[in-house]
């Protein structure tokens, strides 16, 4: 998956899928860009496509939908927005989301990419074990150990700072939301026709809840 922010007055060919925005703003675009450029999403997309992405593959891709007040959403916007604005063509976009515009030093850029992978992994509810599996199986023969180590460092730091419960620990308690770690029972209805929703993170729930997952 290779996603890009296209500057104004640029042309796309008919083999370049693009996204229109009937609603939302630049921050929403930056969030989606961050998820699409992350290794967890790329790993998932590679289960279905390798070199030619069309809308049949693109449309069903699972995208996290945290609230805009969620610190993980905000950090995704900051990281993706900064990485997507390397020169003055993107100045208006950078101003709209409150990030700097200009080249990012190579070391800093690499660290931001690693952190973005960690932040997105947390939004997918991936445990460290599952995140490790993503790196191990991402591409045959690639040197994944060091990128994984750095991603896990960011993963643990962010999870600790936000006091997040990851999917692995939430799975030990069926009464907790696997996405945000909160007790979801007050928010899951007894009517099977009602989709259970976590009152904190608004995510649809896991099989232990009543109703469709």
Keywords:
mainly alpha; 43% helix; globular; 213 residues
Blueprint of the fold:
Elements: H1 26-36, H2 39-45, H3 55-58, H4 71-83, H5 91-97, H6 106-123, H7 128-136, H8 145-162, H9 167-170
Helix pairs in contact: 1-4, 4-6, 6-8, 7-8
Descriptive notes:
With 213 residues, the protein is mostly helical. It has 9 helices and no strands. Helix 1 packs across helix 4, helix 6 packs across helix 8 and helix 7 packs antiparallel against helix 8.
Mean pLDDT: 80
Give helix and strand order, one letter per element, not per position: HHHHHHHHH
Largest sheet: none
Question: Which stretches of 5+ consecutive residues score pLDDT under 50?
Answer: 166-172, 187-196, 205-213
Helical content stands at 40-55%
The coarse silhouette is: globular
Total number of strands: 0
Sheet-strand content, in percent, reads under 5%
